[in-house]
Each structure stands twice: as C-alpha cells, then as structure tokens.
Amino acid sequence: MEGAEMSAFRRCSGVFLLGLCCVLMELWRLGAACPASCTCSGTRIACVDQERGIMAFPVLQSELEMDNITDIYIANQSSFSSINDKDLHYYRNLTNLTVTNSRLTYVSRLAFQNNLKLQYLNLKDNNLSSLSWRIFRHLNISNLILSGNPLHCSCEIMWMKLWLGEEADAQELQCIAEDGGRKPLTRLKLPHCMVPMATLSPSKVMVQEGADMVLTCNTSGEPSPELIWKMTPLISYYEIEASGQVSELHLYNLSSLDNNCKITCSAGNIVGENESTVLLNILFPPNISKLSDAYQDHHWCIPFSMSGNPKPKLRWLLNGEPVNEGPYIMTMIHDFSEREYHGCLQLDSPTHINNGPYTLLASNKYGQDRKTVDAHFMRDPFEGGTVTEPLYYDPTTDDTPLDPPEDRVAIYVVVGVAAVAFTGFLLMLVILKFGGNSKFGIKGFVLFHNVPVEVVGR
C-alpha cells in the first residue's frame, strides 16, 4: 500500500511540476514579447516607466496574444504622441484603454475601427487640441474622459458638450479661446455652429406592390451637413436627386421583397450627426412558397412557408372539405424570417381517417394562393388487402413499412369470449359449492355419492 501511495504521489507531483513549467514558460514568452518599459499579463498591458519610454502601442509576438488583451494602461510617456489607423488593429477584445499624462496630440478617425468592445476610454492630461466625434460613432463607449487637454474653442469640439452633457462639468472640461482665456465647455456658444437635423417625409409608407413613390429628406445645420441615404440592398429600382440641403429618393415598381426594408436619411457635419428613418410597408397578395410532405417529430407536421402583407388568413381543406381545427389539429406559425412565415399544420396522433390531399388556402384583401400535398399517416385497417400492406409507417426510415400488428377487432373478440367463459366458470363453482344448502332455496338436482337426488325446496 505504501508503495502504491508513493507511486501515486510521484505521478501527481510530476503533473503539478509539468503544469507549473507550462505556466512559467507562458509568462516568460509574454515577458519576452513585452517592451522593457511595460509589464504584460494574459489580459493586460501596462506601460508606466518614464525613463524607458514607448513611442507606440506594444506589439506582442502573436495575434492570439493581442486578441486576449482587454486592458491597456499607458502613462507618463513623453514620446507617445499619436494613435494611428492600425495601432490597435489586433486588440479586438480591448474594453478599457487609458493614455494619460503623455504627449498624445493626434487620434486617427480609424484608430478604433477594430475595437468594437471598447467601453472605457481615458485620454486625460494629454496634448489634444481637437477631437472628431466620427472617431467614436460606431462604438458604445460608456465612459469618456477628456479633461486636462488644451482643447481649442472651436466648432469641432461642440459635440463633446452635447455628448457628455452634465459630465462635462464634472470633468471640468475647458477650452482655450482666441484671446487665450479658458471657458467651461458647457457655456461655449459659437456662431455658425449648429448640430444638423434631418427630416424624412412621408414619415410612414404604406403602398401597394408595383407602385412608385418619392421620399424627401430635408436637412439643416451649420456648417452645411453632408447628406447620406442608408438602406438595406433594395430589389426595387431607385434614383437619387439632390439640390442644396434637400434630397429625393425615387422608388419605382416597388417589389414585395422590399417589404419591411429600412431607409434612413443621415445628415452630418463637424458638430455631430442626425438621422431620420422610415420602414417600407408594401402591401401584396399571399404567396405560398412551400408546402411539403408530412413528417413526424413530437407531432405530425405538414410544413409550409408563405408570405403576404397584411398577414394572410389560413384555411385547410382535406379531400375538398374544411378541416375543423381544435386541440388535436391546429395551424402553428413557428418563425418569421427572410420575409416569410414558417409553420405547419400540426396533427396529434392522426389515423387513416386523416389521410388524403391537404390544401392550404392563404388569403388577404389583395388576393389569395393555394397549394396541395398528399399526406398518408396510416392504412385503413378495415380495407381489403394483403398482410404486406403496412398499417403504420416508421417516420425514421425511408418509407420502409413495419410488420403489421394484430388485428385489433380479432383481439377484442378473443378477449370478450375469454371474459364470458371465465364468468360462467365462476358461477358453476358457486352453484356446486352452495347448491345443497336449503337456506339458498335452490331447486334442482345435486350429486350425492354419485346418485342424482331431487331436492325440493321448503
């Protein structure tokens, strides 16, 4: 026993030492890739050494290592002056970034294009004189710190006042005016510096398939904003006509495939951005794109896919007669995707009575559509035929019939005859046991010493 315990201990010790070596090797590898002025761990990089400074973000040995970094902290770096397009390209999971008390003077508009998870950005106490809102337009930053920078009182920083609101006062954000004086950002007012506005008309669109229509976007703001139409790829043909701060989008022969498409008119200048959106509501008759063979899952299902606006009403026919839906037969819509409703006619334990051609009827005020499919759930047990004709079908196979079970009618007959015979047998036992007792008042013959004797009741 002691030898076995010692062997087990040695194995555990070997595994532990191997794991420790792997951890130390990983730490050494990270340390080898890390600049001398920084410290690196699996998820964090910190560069605070002022004597052995850095000029740009550290580049680790592999993309995987940089992909694991979530926090970068840089401080006291007198040679760190810019964040360029590709500096943070491989830090895709970066959530916290601090560059403080350095000489940061420039941030590219594409600096954070690959850092979609960035939430905390601290650029405090640097040398930034301006910063564009377009740098952050695609991010969901919850905490932006900009205090301690020599910001110039210009139209280009007005977005900070709008974005930060009361937080600008909390950070004591100030800007330097032309006369050299400092002004609180929340009190900054400049001429010809207005956030843009965009208004789209009509604000609601409800038209029938095949119609033409015009969407008009009116913009305002100073400086004059740039106007952009944003839309999901349209099937319908369109043209854009612009004049000054007004733009028109002409849509021709609207397709039902563009139903629920979102169209946005966006206006932006150096102060900020504003947009207006409309959803295309295109009315069209039903179209049943799929009606397939029945299959069995938890229930039997006849699957279908169809479209229409407004949502079509659905009815089913079996052998040309309406299907009465209830707890055991019902229409279920499971999903709406790719502009279509997807569902099935659900049947719970159908029999041969439910066999036949099923017709799906879809209708709304603009038209109707129909499709038919044959469904076979069970052979009619009362029909003539050979025993090789299956009564049930196994849904897990390729229509291979199972051996037919016993005829249920024959089973019922055999069980009934057996029950009657057993009951008669019990009655005979009672008569034989108690028939000679006069208190039962039974008249008839009983056997006594194998001689029949007539018994007369009193």
Automatic annotation (TrEMBL):
It comes from the Eukaryota. Residues 1-33 form the signal peptide. Residues 196-281 form the Ig-like domain. Keywords: Disulfide bond, Leucine-rich repeat, Membrane, Repeat, Signal, Transmembrane, Transmembrane helix. One of its GO terms (biological process) is cell surface receptor protein tyrosine kinase signaling pathway. GO terms for cellular component: plasma membrane. Coiled coil: none annotated. One of its GO terms (molecular function) is transmembrane receptor protein tyrosine kinase activity. This is Ig-like domain-containing protein. It comes from Coregonus suidteri.
